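Pipeline run #58 for the internal structure catalog. This entry was flagged by the ingest filter as a single-chain record with no existing model, so it goes straight to prediction. Upstream metadata was stripped on purpose; only the residue string is passed forward. Reviewer on rotation: M.T. Logging verbosity set to normal.
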Amino acid sequence: VQLVESGGGLVQPGGSLRLSCAASGFTFSNYHMSWYRQTPGKEREFVATIPSADGSTNYADSVKGRFTISRDNAKNTVYLQMNSLKPEDTATYYCRTSNRFGGYWGQGTQVTVSS
């Protein structure tokens, strides 16, 4: 299993970014995918999740209405569209999936929201 995030960067408050997570090594369409984030000295926190098949996406209250998770099974990629970004969204963002053998993380991509 390999997960590779990209799309992070520096953005001003109120701006937008789209993160991508390219997956390989497993049947992507069969698995739920999630985004988490972490800042130094804090635990990694849940951001959003999308099921493998039809079903509801879920979001942390702190990002609801501003972030949208989506997936393209043909490209084995999950996305996180982030709008109306705030300084408190600054973090390293990770994608994650899991199967019966355990959980898998990417290396993360840094998002910095600052003027």
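catalog note: The first strand starts at residue 2 and ends at 6.
catalog note: The chain is about 0% helix and 50% strand.
status: ready for reviewer M.T.
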